[in-house]
Amino acid sequence: MRIVRIGVVLALAVPALAVGAYLLAAMVLSRLPVDGQPAARQGVEVFVCTNGVHTDLVLPAVTVAVDWTVDLPNGDFPGAGPWASHRSFGWGDRAFYLETRQWSDLRPSTALSALFGRGPSVMHVYALHRPAGSPDCGVVVLDEGQYDALAAFVRGSFRRDGDGRVMPLPGSGYGATDLFYEAVGHYSPVETCNEWTGKALRAAGVTMAAWAPFESGVMRWVR
Predict the structure, then answer these.
(1) Confidence band, pLDDT 50/70/90 cuts, at residue 101
(2) pTM above 0.70, yes or no
(3) Considering only CA atoms, which of 152, 177, 2 is closest in space to residue 80?
(4) Is residue 133 part of a domain?
């Protein structure tokens, strides 16, 4: 019986220690900066927005250097209208995004698939108005080279067909102003949706956390 009790204690202790180590690493590394370039005084205004759990990049739909409407035409967002001056980008696990429209929809199989990085990923894109002044958003200004690097990272996160075109998932959006697209990579506790945002900003030379698995690890550097 003693051996059984030891086994039970270990079975409970090992996951608890793993979770504790994960949270400790997240707390430390989300406060440890990877220093970027000095803030640009003029350039492209980029927003980083949160819903309290997940972060998105919000970029101008069209600039001199980058026209997102080539890959993401207005026709993909029929409800957006001419006021949609920006596109938001959020990367994540396909099953979690598409099958968990609200928390009550969450199934253990979906959570486990995301946890172990087994499923494909998607890019969630909204057509929206410039979110200036929103308390849920921070803003950074990037020079031309920085914005090119950021755009290259985002573009490289889309899965593409043999002709180089992005691959939308018809009818997958939550409404008429958003749509999901096939993406590259697999979600995991290390490669989270928020860490994708952090990687994009680090690629652009923005001072950012060394690792940002949670939204707070991103937002603390852009607010």
Answers:
(1) low
(2) yes
(3) 177
(4) yes
